[in-house]
Each structure stands twice: as structure tokens, then as C-alpha cells.
Amino acid sequence: MRPSQILSYAVLAGTSLAQGDIGALLASQPELSTLLELVGLIDGLAETLSAASNITIFAPTNDAFAAVPRDVPEGQAIENKNDIIAIGALLANHVFKGVYPASVITDIPTFAQTLLDSSYVNEIQPFSNFTGGAYNELVKNGEDVCVISGEQTISTVTEADIMLGEGITIHKVDTVLAFGAPFQLFTYRSGYFAMNAALEAAQLAIDFGLSGPEATGLNISDFTIFVPTNEAFESIGSVLASADQATLQEVLKYHIIPNNVIFSTALANVTVPSLQGADLVFTVLEDGSAWVNGAKILYANTILFNGVAHVIDGVLSPLAPFDRAALDPAAPASDRLAFEGATSLSALPFTTASLAFGGDLMTYTTTPELLKTVAAVATPTAGLTATTTGAPRETYTGAAMGMLPGAGMAVAGAMGVAAALV
């Protein structure tokens, strides 16, 4: 990241900029002309944002917009400038509630909410379904300030702390922030085929981010889900081979926490009820590693369309309570199986031929190192709450509502938080 440049808008454009004219600011920045064009497509948006208080805008450069593939929702919004709902969703995902200067962003992740809420739905899809707005992750990567958004997207700040009046902070970024994917689309693109196929085989009456004619069950939101690796499923293959559908449903529901978006930095030594009903036991060790029952969280905090996913190295079992005292962190995953007597099978009973989103052409060939190394951090909290971690310097109190005329935007006047676990 280049050194922070705090611009004096009184010098740039006299009193109008000093009062907070975001359109004039963007016009004064040649590398933000595409963003200016998109903002101008929505009547009154520039004025609405200028009137807001305590927001942070991550502003993609022209090169960032040009690099977005045109076959993804973000690219279609950029290319088809006649879809103001898609454009509004794209822009809303770059406006964060609260003031986040570069100085408050550290190597301990902050999960902040944006103005992208469930009101953004066009004829093709909804764009997010979080209570209080979609989440993105703010974190340092060496000396760089980064934003981690959906689809394993990492955006690096190239110019930080451009101030517009007292209540708006702007950071230029080199990559457009992405929307979170529906859960089973994430599992397909990431190669977690066993979890994807297991959910299909179980025929759970739950949809993870689908709507319209494709939705066949309850579309839950604000959830946390644990994703065993393919190897984890294979390690208990003998159990899966003899399990009926009802048992498979119970096991998979045990991997879901409803109505709580729980990021790794909020974890502590607590128990939390699962969708299945039995408790999950969380453990955070002094080395910062996080565990759920006897499974280690390998890769945390994948932001989805309507929840967060954590990849783990074992399949969890609701059949018997887990005793935290029995956790052996030094043991390999093969010695920490939750199903006693299970043996490995490479050919699982549910076929990958019926994968949800099978045939999708986008895949994540490698997980970026930054995403793999952002780990849970031990905290002194006695409980677990689904809240943002790492407070902004000022919380959002603005009037950036009605970004789309008649869209029914319902932006809370303060940082939205999901229901707390006690």
C-alpha cells in the first residue's frame, strides 16, 4: 500500500468539496472515472452518499472494473449499465457502515457490514441475504490493507484515507469486491464435493441461497456452517455406507448453527446449539487454533451469500456429547474421528453425479495464502456473539438510505448484529 494521502478538498474544489460532494471528488480522480459513471447512473446516489455520516467507501479503480469477467454478476452489472438494481447492489457492497481508517485495520480480521441488504433482487437473482447488510473482511497482509469479500476475492488498498468531510473515508482498491456465493455453489467451486453430494443425498428441506423456482425448501440466512473436507468424509466411509437418509440429515444439521453469523475471531471456549439440537463445543487454544468438537478449523471465514463457512478436518457427530478435556490437538485427524470404529472408504455412497451446481465453469484452483493464514484469535470473552470484530473509529449513523428509488432499502442506523449466543 502506498503511504496514506489525506486530500484537502478545500484546496481541490473550494467550499463544495469541503461540504462533502462525492461526485466532485470522484471527478477529480481520473482513475475513478468508471466508479463515477456507475454512481451517476442511479439518480440521487451521489447526493445521498454525500449526506451520510460515518461510512467507509472502498473505491475500485478503472483497472479494477475492467478486470472483472463479464460472465459473473459483478461483471454483468458493470457491462449492462441499464440494470440499476445490479449496479446498486455492486456499489452498496463497497460502502461500509462505520469509519475504518487504515490505522484501525490490523492482522486481526475485522468483519464489517455494508449497505448491501436483501432488498437488492433483480429478475435473475438476489445479491445478499444478511440481516443488517452483507459482511466483508478487513485485514492487514504484511504492510498492505486488504478486503476479503465473496468468492475468495482479495482487494488491496492502493491509496488510503481520502477524507470527504468529517464522516466519509475513502480507500482506493485494485480489485472489485465480489458478492458471496450460495453455499453449495461455494462447495462446488472449491472442490468440497463430498459435502455438496451429501446435502443432495440427504434431501434436506433447506436451501442455501437459492430463491425463485429453483428453491425447493426453507431458505435460511444468517447461518454458520462447518464444511468437512473430502478426506474427512472418506475417513468415515464405512459409517456413511450404512447410514440411512434420516441419519445423514441429523449429521449434516449438526454442522449448521442457525441465526448466528460466527466468525473465527468471535470464538472462545463455549458450547453452542446446532440446528440439529445437540451442542457444538468450541475450543480456542493459546496458539490461536480453533476447534469445533474434535475437528480443527483449517480454513475460516468464507463469506457466503447469506452465511459464513469454516472448513474443518473431521465430520462431526451428534450421537454423543463431546468432552473438551478429551481434545488431543497433537493427534492427526485420522486419530480424532468422531465416529468410533469408522474405517476409510474412497468411494462414498452418495455419488458426485448429482452435485448441486454441477457443470459450473468457475473453480478456485488454489486457496490464496492470506485466506489460509487468517486464524482464530483467542479473546477474553466469556460468551460468543455474532458481531463485527474490531470496532470502527466511528459507527455508522448516516442517511445513506434509498440508494435505489423504490427499492425499499432498510438500513439500520447503527452497526447491525445478529442474535447473540448465550
Automatic annotation (TrEMBL):
Domain FAS1: 19-177, 179-316
Cellular component annotations (GO), alphabetically ordered: fungal-type vacuole membrane
SUPFAM superfamilies, A to Z: FAS1 domain (SSF82153)
Cited InterPro entries: Adhesion/Biosynth-related (IPR050904), FAS1_dom_sf (IPR036378), FAS1_domain (IPR000782)
Pfam families xref list: Fasciclin (PF02469)
Biological-process GO terms, alphabetical: macroautophagy
PANTHER family per the UniProt record, alphabetical: FI19380P1, PERIOSTIN-RELATED
Protein name: Fasciclin-domain-containing protein
Organism: Decorospora gaudefroyi
